[in-house]
């Protein structure tokens, strides 16, 4: 493992760990106790856009923000890893960092990876936070999903462009299309309803890749395990970047088992739980 101090964040280090014969770049906070939080990014993009929320959660425990194999500062791969392989890589990262358990905080495709880890290695997952858990029937066929993605691009903060565009260009349109197609066929709803660990789902009202909040509430009642859903007004798909303080507040409230405390609910957020 190689390590150096973060370029701009006090209390953070950047590290490289070996996973499956290739190196994985990650950012890690230092100096806090508690269950570690591992933030998993979406398709074709690095973990850089997850950093605002990770920084807002540093007091809760060690936060780890990897660039999964083939993404961001991690070396490119000849073959794009599918979701099960990315889940295996996530477990390998936990192994390399000697983390027995972690709270997985996924966004978009990172939610599918998190769900896959929870179903294949539940003993490694303390709990799940699924931010904009895309995938499945609502995003099919592929043409519909691409239209949803295009609409979302106009709803995200313009400040995200210099963060996201270089990653998308580096990843390449062919790889991006291939992986996005796989995401649309991932059984996100079924995995969510049968997740073996406590789960929080966070959705933006303006996110075109997600079903309506009313439909989400209806579906959440069918969950086999306790499922908490938070709906954030004026937010689109990438809440981790656009609404980091609100998202961190919701996560902290949920981890503290304080969902019923109205004083802890951030402004512009509605929360409900399955029976």
Could you characterize the architecture of this molecule?
The structure is a single chain. This protein is α/β, with parallel strands linked by helices and 275 residues long. The protein has a single domain, classed as Rossmann fold. 36% of the residues lie in helices and 21% in strands. It contains 10 helices and 10 strands. A 10-stranded mixed sheet has the order 1-2-3-5-4-6-7-8-9-10, with helices on both faces. Strand 8, helix 8 (213-220) and strand 9 form a beta-alpha-beta unit. Helix 2 (83-96) packs across helix 3 (109-120). The longest helix is centred in the first third of the chain and has 14 residues, at 83-96. It is globular. It starts with a strand and ends with a strand. The mean pLDDT is 90.
Low-confidence stretches: none
| Helix share, percent | 25-40%
Helix/strand-derived class?
Answer: alpha/beta
CATH class equals: Alpha Beta
Number of strands: 10
- What percent strand? 15-25%
What is the CATH topology classification name?
Rossmann fold
| Radius of gyration, taken over Cα atoms and rounded to an integer in Å | 17 Å
- What's the rounded overall pLDDT mean? 90
- What's the overall geometry? globular
Q: How many domains is the backbone divided into?
A: 1
Count of alpha and pi helical runs: 10
Tell me the span between the first and last alpha carbons.
44 Å
Q: How would you sum up the major sheet?
A: 10 strands, mixed
CATH superfamily: Alpha/Beta hydrolase fold, catalytic domain
By CATH, the architecture is named 3-Layer(aba) Sandwich
Spatially, the strands of the biggest sheet line up as 1-2-3-5-4-6-7-8-9-10
